[in-house]
Amino acid sequence: MQVCFQAAAMVLQYPDEDLMSRLDLVERSLAGSRSEPLFAATLAHLRSKPLRELQEFHVQEFDLSRRHAMHLTYWTDGDTRRRGEVLAAIKQTYRDSGLIVDLDGELPDYLPMVLEFAARGDTERGLALLNTYRASLELLRLGLRKDGLPQEGVVEAVCRQLAGPLASSRADVQQIYGATYVDAPPIEQVGLETYQIQTGRPVS
């Protein structure tokens, strides 16, 4: 489980030279596991283009587009004031673990961060967070599948480590995991400055 979570945390983040140098290590760590074939498309994608093009792709698909938002609470709480309370609760989970978690300018619900926390920090608390936001993971996975993005397999591999079946549709997510907003997360027009998803990651 931890190997899958760590590998997913690495390949779902903004690509840089460090990630490129570790792709072979990621592939070897997954060899022979049930997750290995689910990572294949993403690893092939990361090896198929120059780094700058990969970075531009990531910014376009995961930073500027909310169709594939990597922030788990976006799918449950959208851009609302309540989301700020939920983000604070996730921060408290990190504190309760007794570990120092470097947010590095990200929101605490950023999927690669939660995955790394579950893999290398506090597995019990990290796994609880992932299960709490299983509906978010399913909605992200279905969005990636609909748009034909290679990262779908990685998110599926994560979901297969968690309790409950894969959803085949947004209606399934609502029925199985109790998702409230399966079409579009809610938006409030007031008081959002603190909680909006960060975008515009620089491309080097």
TrEMBL record:
This is Nitrate reductase molybdenum cofactor assembly chaperone. Keywords: Nitrate assimilation. It comes from Tessaracoccus rhinocerotis. Pfam families: Nitrate_red_del (PF02613). GO terms for biological process: chaperone-mediated protein complex assembly; nitrate assimilation. Signal peptide: none annotated. GO terms for molecular function: metallochaperone activity; unfolded protein binding. The keyword Kinase does not apply.
